[in-house]
Amino acid sequence: MTMDTFDHPIEASPSPRQTTRCVAVGPYKIGGDAPVLIQSMTDTETADIDATVKQAAALARAGSELVRLTINNEQAAAALPHIREQLASQGIEVPLVGDFHFNGHKLLKRHPACAEAIAKMRINPGNVGKGSRRDPQFAEMIEIACRYELPVRIGVNWGSLDESVLTRLMDANAQRQQPYPPEMVTRDAVVTSAIESAKQAEELGLPGDSIILSCKMSGVQDLVAVYRDLARRCDYPLHLGLTEAGMGVPGIASSSAALAILLQQGIGDTIRVSLTPDPGGARTREVEVAQQILQCMGLRDFTPRVTACPGCGRTSSNYFQHLAEQVRHHIDERIPEWRNQYPGVEKLRIAVMGCVVNGPGESRHADIGISLPGADEQPAAPVFVDGERRTTLKGDNIAAEFKNIIEEYIQQRWG
């Protein structure tokens, strides 16, 4: 058996980000070489100021860097300045994104303070008006954006696609000798609507570096296909997300699959995981999932990561499961203070392994790792720090001693 000579590196990183324009939104940059940002959206009635402030604050504290709110009526538009003011009084300066459909042009004219309170507008070209009203109402929205120097996300949704674009492309397709399937034409219409609307906005005076695009689809493969084409046809920053990801595990899985494919190809500048919350569940779950997607893709770091083995017949004790849970809980409790005291601590990697098969090797690969005894193994747990065996823990205080080792390591490395 011959061994091939190592003659090329095996890359393990996403493709370079596609070159896009850079758009300023509040204190953030979107696109260019800025990091991929996380966005979420409130589901309260925006006119309910207290409830909306409470949820927007929770989303911001969880890590949502932009928070979108529905502005659908007079009461919601009037509430925006008060929401902005109350968030600021809590020290929360998260940029608020106003989501407008159908009547946005009227609401912003009647409530100029609303335009002053938001940091970005989101317009769906399919919902600004129909027929002869579409272009003038779209123009009014863009004129307001220009007046208040607001960036605009032109967000196309396949569930409310501009009928004029779809009809035009369907008619053209019908003239082909071999027409494409309707679903292919629909995907093209989504992309075309976004790009044509962006070009129209620029012609109306909106600077090209004030435009972000999104094309929301419900299916993973549809989303991937549309964004690949969108990235090929324009250089506007792109906001990624399934329009209705769903609940629980299916919603998390479908969002993770779609976003991971695109991010790996260097596509995407902001993301949202549009999870349907469980009844009574926290809205912040979608922010946590978005953070985990970016972190596991190696694009950003938000919190120390704990690697733990899944267990098997060799790990007859469930102690390693309890230890992994305790370590995770300890990190969740301590991370707010760690971030302030130890910049960079988010990059910490910890391994909690359950037997001798992969335990020592996996532990050595982490910054700090512990290999707990499995079935029929010696009742001892070697601890590895930076690849070297540091100590061996025994007895009833392994969890407390291991957490002390973590604290000492953080102080020494980032203190």
UniProtKB/TrEMBL annotation:
Pathway: Isoprenoid biosynthesis; isopentenyl diphosphate biosynthesis via DXP pathway; isopentenyl diphosphate from 1-deoxy-D-xylulose 5-phosphate: step 5/6
Its EC number(s): 1.17.7.3
Record's keyword terms, sorted: 4Fe-4S, Iron, Iron-sulfur, Isoprene biosynthesis, Metal-binding, Oxidoreductase
Tagged with keyword Chloroplast: no
Pfam families recorded: GcpE (PF04551), GcpE_C (PF26540)
Listed GO MF terms: 4 iron, 4 sulfur cluster binding; 4-hydroxy-3-methylbut-2-en-1-yl diphosphate synthase activity (ferredoxin); 4-hydroxy-3-methylbut-2-enyl-diphosphate synthase activity (flavodoxin); iron ion binding
Any one of the GO BP annotations: terpenoid biosynthetic process
Catalytic activity: (2E)-4-hydroxy-3-methylbut-2-enyl diphosphate + oxidized [flavodoxin] + H2O + 2 H(+) = 2-C-methyl-D-erythritol 2,4-cyclic diphosphate + reduced [flavodoxin]
Domain IspG C-terminal, first and last residues per copy: 306-407
Cofactors: [4Fe-4S] cluster
Binding-site residues for [4Fe-4S] cluster, renumbered to this chain: 309, 312, 355, 362
Domain IspG TIM-barrel: 20-291
Ranges annotated as spanning the membrane: none
Cofactor note (record): Binds 1 [4Fe-4S] cluster.
HAMAP family in the record: IspG
Task performed by this protein: Converts 2C-methyl-D-erythritol 2,4-cyclodiphosphate (ME-2,4cPP) into 1-hydroxy-2-methyl-2-(E)-butenyl 4-diphosphate.
Family: Belongs to the IspG family.
Protein name: 4-hydroxy-3-methylbut-2-en-1-yl diphosphate synthase (flavodoxin)
Lineage of origin: Bacteria, Pseudomonadati, Pseudomonadota, Gammaproteobacteria, Chromatiales
Gene name, Swiss-Prot/TrEMBL: ispG
